[in-house]
From TrEMBL:
GO terms for molecular function: transposase activity. Residues 3-44 form the Transposase IS30-like HTH domain. GO terms for cellular component: cytosol. It comes from the Bacteria. GO terms for biological process: transposition. This is Transposase IS30-like HTH domain-containing protein.
Amino acid sequence: MGYRQLTQKQRYQIFARLETGASQRQIARELDVHSTISREIRRNAVCLEYDPEQAQTLSDRRRRLAWKTTKRLPSLVRWITRQLRDEWSPEQISGFMANANGIRVSHEWIYSLIRDDKVRGGNLWNALRLPQRRCYHRHLASSASTALAIKSRAPWRSNSWSGSVTWGSGCERARWVESVMAYPLVLVEILVVINQQDTPPFLPTPILQESP
């Protein structure tokens, strides 16, 4: 029988039986782990002393280090790639793996996987829902310098109303947005959802008077 991962409870049992002078073979028979006992003591004993808590700590540390080296297993990369092409976000993949089987893969690592694929000429980045998100923000920042200066803009007018219509999917419903400048630099919007056959509602009479 091959090696089986021991639980912390079994490690306490091993410690207790060793303290009573039981042999490794006898302990293996009692715990039904056979050759696992000799390997456990060889790997997790410190200064020829076996301590169950120290053994558990050493075992957990090795498992964490082993997982770091297996993150890029081809089977795991293939599975993540399939989920990305099915329009899962890296955050969704990371959360699903943690909840489903306890495997923790950060979404940052998945993004690094996408970047590496792009450097190699792959197109996995196209599967992202917002592939140009960062570029878009950079574009906004770079275009800010082309905006008109405040002193060059049209003068502010109180009680100034405007409206716009945005049609929904299939043109079944629309949104009518009414905007009013009540005070300088303060824009109040009123959102009304209307049917396609309806016309935009009449604008209410402004009750705000222009400041003297």
